[in-house]
Amino acid sequence: MIQRNSNLSILPFYGDIDEQNHRKSYAYGEVYPLYTPVGTIPPFQIITDHEAASVTAVRLYKAGGQLVSSILSGMEGGGLQRFQFTDYDVIVYPSLATQLYSGEGQYYIVIETTYQTETKRYYSDIFTAVGRVSAYLKIEWWDLTDLVMDDARVVYILGGEQDNFRNVVYLATELGKPDYEFDEEGEERDGRFFPEKQLSQKKYRCTFLASEPLCDVMRLIRLSDYVKITDRWGHVYRADTFLMTPQWQTQGDLASVEVEFTANTIAKKIPRPLSVVGDYNDDYNDDYFND
Known about the structure:
Blueprint: E1 13-14, E2 35-37, E3 44-49, E4 54-62, E5 67-70, H1 72-77, E6 81-84, E7 88-93, E8 105-115, E9 118-124, E10 127-130, E11 137-142, E12 147-148, E13 153-154, E14 167-171, E15 179-189, E16 192-210, H2 212-218, E17 226-230, E18 236-238, E19 241-248, E20 255-262, E21 267-269
Parallel strand pairs: 2-10
Antiparallel strand pairs: 1-9, 3-7, 4-5, 4-8, 6-7, 8-9, 8-10, 11-14, 11-17, 12-13, 15-16, 16-20, 16-21, 17-18, 19-20
């Protein structure tokens, strides 16, 4: 696994199980609840060395380390595949399988790859399977082309009949306490302001707790072509702008993250003049002396 300082995946992966987020000294053993529907694995991508290795096993474990089952065939049916590039490869899973296991709880998976006689293992962080995700705020984001960086990428073009790869995260929060922005353009003459264009916009907001890996991947939302947000009532918002601001707590490994976004709520008006005193042409109709 190519080591980097920033996570690019909803479900993070590590080269050693001791790197899981809750095992950090300042996390105090607390597991961040990365929610996913029961039976599914959150979407993920793993950047590996360019070695033409194949995925030979995927095993599901409970958070305590108890083996649940082997799920390689199910995940392959759900879109698990490997993309090869010049300097690295990317293992991609778009989370299309829905019945890989049963039962709510906390799990992690271990992926094995084999090249010639060498076997490598990649350990996921812990995710939390719940029976009802509609109670959470759902955020999806994706691009129409791969997001390419200096030595990494997020693969969005999967090929075949599958849709583009979509990042999906469920957050324990809801939208509320919006901001209302007002802007106007015009000019001031003789001590009076004459508006030429007025704009009013509603800015949606929410606040939630997030781990460092989640903050890492959510920073890419602002760079994405499409951002879709669904609240607990099923209302869908197509975000035009997206800004997240994390503030790290004094103790523990979590940040209080404030998100704000806009979604086609602009009201625009070209105002009428402040006073109307007729057109002063020579037709001498009713508007000549209109005041």
